[in-house]
Here is the input.
Amino acid sequence: MTASVDFTLTRPAEEQAELLAAVDDFAVRRGLTNVVRFRLGLVIDEMVANCIAHGACAGRDQGIRIDVTDRENEVEIKIVDSGPRFDPTAQAAASCRNGDVKVGGIGLCLVCNLSAEVTYDRRGEANHTRITLDKSTQEQTCNSTK
Amino acid sequence: MQLHEIEHPKAAIFQIKGRLDAGSTPELEKKVLLSLDRGVRYLVLDFSELEYINSAGLRVLVMGYQRLNPRGGRIIICGVRDYIAEIFDISGYNRIFSMQSDIREALLEIDPTPNGQ
Here is the structure.
């Protein structure tokens, strides 16, 4: 059975910890495996942290909206923020397996590689990012598309 | 996060329980920096009870590596749970840190003959 939960952060920096606790609670209630539960929390954590770090969420009335839907075979995460254009798929280093130890950008690199798919679209004045997590595989592949 | 430091003559050993994220990382960073300032060459991090780590936590580890590596030191991470281990694999950090199964193995890496044999 499909289940969804949504969050709206108007002060992301202050609300991030509470958001992650609520996401983790959702994951536990849905009986997600430790792998998927960890990936879900980490992906949302890194996306929100990135938004905060680059000031995209700061001072914005609409802040950031996050929808999480747990389906039979995947978990879908939709993130909408009203900040300046920011395409995480363009920023993520798909080659972060090459042993080049760069600290900057590691968060998005993890998002990309832990996700089954990452898509980005700019609609109007908002960034729309859709991320799916595969519930059945452990593969670490990056299939990002714009 | 709960952080417990174990005294050892050759290493700084930290056992970390719970979540290592943006909120808790500064505490670990402070402890790590204090150890590095004391001249420690080996940093052992027991992650057997670590439930979560994000890029902020990884950055502290890399900072430690960047300071220890020039002086011939090493960061040894032990007991990492499978679902966390994959981010070390993805990032390639499993090649700059020594990954061991538990503290015993980590200490053997530092001193293969702990009884002077």
Summary: The longest strand of chain A covers residues 126-134. Residues 73 and 94 of chain A are 24 Å apart (CA to CA). The helical segments of chain A are 12-29, 34-53, 88-91, 106-114. The first helix of chain A runs from residue 12 to 29.
